Predict the 3D structure of the following.
Amino acid sequence: MSQQATVTHAEVTSRITRRFEALKQQNRAALVTFVTAGDPDTATSQAILDGLPAAGADIIELGMPFTDPMADGPSIQKAAQRALKAGQDQHKTLDMVRRFREHDQDTPIVLMGYYNPIYRFGVDAFLREARDVGVDGLIVVDLPPEHDSELCLPAAEYGLNFIRLATPTTNDARLPKVLENTSGFLYYVSVAGVTGAGSASSEAVERAVARLQLHSRLPVAVGFGIKTSEQAADVARAADGVVVGSALVNCIEQAATREDAIRAVHALTAELAEGVRGARHTG
Amino acid sequence: MTALASLPDHNGFFGDFGGQFVAETLMPLILELQGCYDAAKQDPAFHEELAYFQRDYVGRPNPLYYAERLSEHLGGAKIYFKREELNHTGAHKINNCIGQILLARRMGKNRIIAETGAGMHGVATATVAARFGMDCVIYMGSTDIERQQQNVFRMRLLGAEVIPVTSGTGTLKDAMNEALRDWVTNVDSTFYIIGTVAGPHPYPAMVRDFQAVIGRETRDQMLEKEQRLPDSIVACIGGGSNAMGIFHPFLNDDSVAMIGVEAAGHGIETGEHAASLNGGVPGVLHGNRTYLLQNDDGQIKDAHSISAGLDYPGIGPEHAYLKDNGRVEYVSITDSEALEAFQLCCRKEGIIPALETAHALAEIVKRAPSLPSDHLMVLNMSGRGDKDMMSVAHYLGETMEKGDNA
């Protein structure tokens, strides 16, 4: 492998960094919401995406659907299948971000998914287009730091944050490697498992966040298994961000109509936002 | 050894192919496995133990058999079968399972998981898990369960829990996704026995090493019988473990031609096939970069083959490398060609091959007649066809009551 250059956090001053700094001033955590692009169809998904900031999302993770989402649980798998069946592809996902940016210049958007659709698109072409439409960061689940030269380092050259997952299996010996080229924030997966699985106790989350903060100045967002406003509030006391995905995606699956889907996602987002915003005042 | 047989590099790459494309949750496990496997390879006690089970439990060495009647019928090359179908559990799969479960035991794991397509790897895994007293969970696509019910019953008899996978298209790739999900959830207790030369490093190299006993025996047996190396070796390819196992010990012997046979299903031009090398493009799936059946958006396409064991949209990364550098020739055989060869082998040699193996046989039927009688050709008889009776009867238009062929 070629020698890998290290990206210092200072080189990238992104929407993501600005958003976390602003929230720190307000002494509250960020609500990070995940939905799959194109679920249940591109137009409905666009309406969901466009309304998330007003509903209370501080940062948006937009899933790029993939046929074989190995690290995801049933909820997000099914969301990807619905999206693909409705004809979603990488071009449409990037176009959703472009449309979103026509009316929102401040809310960070992170594209999340798996490497193959990006690889097939062409790494350079994808990064250029992602930057041009207003994407701020990438989370690519199946690219560990061992493969930073594939996408992480090229992404930095385009000014895109590369957000990495740390997990309960990431020990102290490995953590520096995981953190090395990570920028924007660190996504702590609170349980070993797939998305949507049961959540960790607040004590375990607190300990984990404290450990990560010893090694890094990056904001730490915590996810996996957070479904209610109360759980969100618990995590928001310890972490810099609270990630909710499966619970929002479930709203789409359970909705009878497209209008219901939009309404339900925004309603749950508002509830979660209330939990996150009140966490450090009532805790 | 020249470079060809000494790959992968220490990052798990065969040229551009291979690697460790997995979620962070799995990385510490993969690295631990890599370390343990490297240590086991250096440990004579591990090799002794492996040799013991290969001999007394699996039944190795199995014969290199001169297929006289088939050779005469085709009227060209002198054809030998490497009789992997005579192994315990009826296929080459157990060579790898024995190796991996010994490793699992060294690592202190007590729960085994595996994916299976045709069910042969599932049966082999359930077998060794029973032998070593470990819990065993097998993930199998619901579509495959339907067409391989006998193997499902075998696995259950052996004490394994068979979990039907309905996500995606309910085939081998989805079973592999589900096994990976299990693994990230049960990292401490669980060892994942991958059945083919695919997945994240060290699996492609490790599975190949455990299967390379096929090629080493073939080499010794051919030297003993014919006092020289074979001129060509033919093997079928799904993920590619039986082929890699017989090819690898010959990679540096330039005089030995190697032919890997993919499943062309209804024909590559129809789009309904499982020929990743002949009909796919490079991509990243299940922990490695390799040739994949996929669309322009990078979405993985369903494979199709009459044989559930070849029905996988990817291929081991070492095969991808050997295709690009030209050392191995990769061809494809359709469902109907395989069925023809299947019947020919039954009638001429009294050996009922697995449908997977029938693809390699069909290639031999094409090649052998135009070759001289002193051309030594080896076919890897990777598995026996007992499991395929229902499917073959169905394709031949015969009706058979369930249970008649037990």
